[in-house]
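Data deposition worksheet. Section B asks for the primary sequence of the deposited chain exactly as it was used as input, without tags or linkers unless they were present during the calculation. Section C holds the resulting structure in token form. Section D is free text for depositor observations; keep each observation to a single sentence. Incomplete worksheets are returned to the depositor.
Section A, Depositor: J.P.
Section B:
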Amino acid sequence: MFWILWVRFLKYLLVLHRPTDTIALWPKRLKQTYTPSGSLKGKAMNRNKTLSLWVGCLVVASQVGFSARLVQNFNADWRFAQGPQPDQARQVEFDDADWQPVRLPHDWAIAGPFNPDEHGYAGKLPWQGVGWYRKTFTLYAADAGRRVYLDFDGVMAFPKVYVNGQLAGQWDYGYTPFRVEATPYVKFGQDNLVAVEVDTRRQGTRWYPGAGIYRNVTLTLCDPVHLGHGETFVTTPQVTDEAATVRIETVVQNHRDSAEDATVRFRILDPDERLIAFSLYPQTISANDSISLAYELTVNRPRRWDIDDPQLYTLVAQVYADGKEIDSEQIHFGIRTFDFTADDGFHLNGRRVQIYGVNLHHDHGPLGAAFYRRAMERQLEIMRDIGVNFIRTSHNPPASELLELCDRMGFLVWNEAFDKWDHTAGRRDGQPPLREYTRRQIRNFVMRDRNHPSVVVWSIGNEISNYPGNSDGKSPERVRYMRDFFLDYDPTRPVGIGCHIPGTANQPILDALDLTGWNYARRYENYRRRYPDKPIIYSESASALSTRGFYELPLPTVKTDYSDQLQVCSYDLNAAPWSDIPDVEFALMQQDRFVAGEMVWTGFDYLGEPTPFDRQARSSYFGIVDLCGIPKDRYYLYRSYWRPDATTVHILPHWNWPDRIGKNVPVFVYTNGDEAELFLNGQSLGRRVKGQRPKRPENYAQSAAATVSSFEAGNPAEAMLDGNSQTRWCASSGQTGEWLRVDLGQVRPIRYLALEFEREAKYYGYTVAVSEDGRQWRSVVSRPASDQPRWGGPREAFHSVQAQARYLRIEFTELRERTWASIRTLGIYPEPVESDYYAPTYDYRLRWNEVIYEPGELKAVAYKNGQKIGQAVMRTAGEPAQIRLTPDRHNLAADGHDLSYILVEAFDENGVPCPLADHLIHFDIDGPAEIAGVGNGNPLSFEPFQADYRKLFYGKAMLILRSVEGRTGSIQVIARSDGLRDGRTELTAVKADK
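Section C:
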């Protein structure tokens, strides 16, 4: 019998073994720990090799059995009620017939209605409240004796889970996964009830969090002897081109009242699913106990996981008893090396990789917080097209599927645990205690995500103020134990934080961290000086602002010149007060090569945080694309720089300006080329070359004389006339009434004034008067002090004037607290000038600042190294005449979860898109699909996201269709609007893969 089994076993190896494979029956055996009740005690029992081989043969011979672990999608057939319910709602006999049928994931708040009077920080949606979910399910009598678990990937917020009327578990952070054991409460062979109470009233947030069971739920049945949940950990401690060491750690749990013999088998499959490593380990596990195992296998000539070639291996871990498989799991992992360096940025597999990253919040725009794999996949596809290679999960653990997609698509991930450590993390008034609370959150978070090769950084939080000024703030002790919590569960990755207070570097608060992220305005500069041996990443950059399709003239004079229409101009010259336009950040990243790269705030617009109109609007203006995923002009600016080898030629603005015929309409071109020529109706408007900045007109002030009311020692009057921002004039007191007078020496034409103050310009109220003779004065500027923008703001102010004068006088009429009259530079010009702040735009985009508008055709022809690489055309549109529908995909899997995004546009009779169309569009769907959401990217719109209609916003809208589970066939989509020809398209629902 022995020899028969031995021959069979050798045949098995011959079938599976390839000349380059490693079959490891007895790999290097590492420290094994026996862990009763989770503590480390003693060593696992050693088995001799003969016994291992004998058991291995038995297992192989019987491997055709079934897996005892069943993992079932638990998303279908729930019922939902919003608002508090009687206690009986947790009981089996409660009548929920009038509750709403829903399929998870589900966000009850996204249906609205909006409350326009609310602050916009959380999207003006009704996310705060109570909701109840109920689901009836049956367990087969044959499954009696198995353990039963419910796994929730995310519930917003504070869920209590009842099984058959009894509290089975609860959780207190809406973004981390948790497991509930239902074994003691279920009945086999009978109907069972799970009820979940969700209460968001105690949850804090700075953006739209959603409400409900908004991520996936699974039901797991497994043998009492099984692999521990999240306990299998795969690492690659040694990697060369010749071989990689794969370390496997796991825990086997025994929930029986008797000791059990079991064999653990590990198999490694290569990216082509071929078996390349194999091992068997017999163990004995004491009653109601667990055992920890750690082993190493070798993979020859490993295929590296990389952003350009994300090769994934598979570990199959199996547990056998009495010749049958009783448990198993599969884990995908990657073999790669990476390093954040102090002086040369980020290295992946031995080469420097510049990080082109974005921050992404967790909502999917019109779909709310409810997670859809296809919605996430589409976000990543759109980001990849512009060159993004790095995702920051802002500011919380993401859905697990995001990391699966990043693994497969080749994105790196900064995986973040928290925003602040207070109410946005689910804590109030210091409760629960920070240490115990963060440990359990980090444990669940890290054990779920640590096998993903895409994850290269753990983050303990974002923009956390310092203790003791903030009782929930960061201190050396808190930062250290938070980092240690991560290392307890994953010692292989660096731990960092997103910082925003430069002065933090003056204290030892961040010493325990492996790297730091810094948000905005080169705030990493001080940290670099004090910690030159620590890696740095620009964890938030830009925070540029724009509304897709909206243009307004004249152009902004400073980055915080925002429109009275509560939209932000798409010439991409605006940013938040604390941040910068993209070109400024591009220049910084080229200059500071020690920084690993930037992560733009944000890739997509998101619900909530609608800076700068946070009271009026309901969604952000930050995104490179709008809330529906429609690209803004900025999309092409990033693409032109981040993907220098991919052809990009993009013209802005649109060319429908009937009220500006004969007037100036500046034209910008975004291209990966180094120059371009612009044509208007066939006539060349000249070539522009990147890096050629316009010559500035004479600044009269630099040859003028100044007198002042007073000056502070070391800061005389002439300092404001030297053109140097590092020097300044400052009055000797902080009183109003201080003044300065400038003598130009002769009467000159004055058309433009540029003032750079010591502090933000908003703190100064002043008047400007001019005179030809110094006796008769005429007021040309009167500006009050202001509280806006709320945070920060530019130090510059610009004023158009029309004057002939020799003398100019500025008097300070209002000074905010701790502000003295003080000017760094004064500019007096014969024609308008642009702020030096915008100088980098000439290095990364091509600008024609003086284009006299006439209807017709704009054409840009782009060149690189003297060779034409492409062209773009922009035409004046006629009246809207037709609707066009463009799906992102025509086939939908009939799983009740797959999506198709259909772009809705208006065109004129000649097929030219109409950039100003705002028609109301109605949608008809015939076939196995339903409307999941509608949107148009307008941050000010309070139309519902769940409706069969939507207005166009600057010519575009988005219709999102969802498949119906189990129903296949043709889907006819019709879009109608008064005065326009219908738009039509056809989709097909196909059988879903199991």
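Section D:
The longest strand covers residues 796-815.
Residues 1-66 have pLDDT under 50 and may be disordered.
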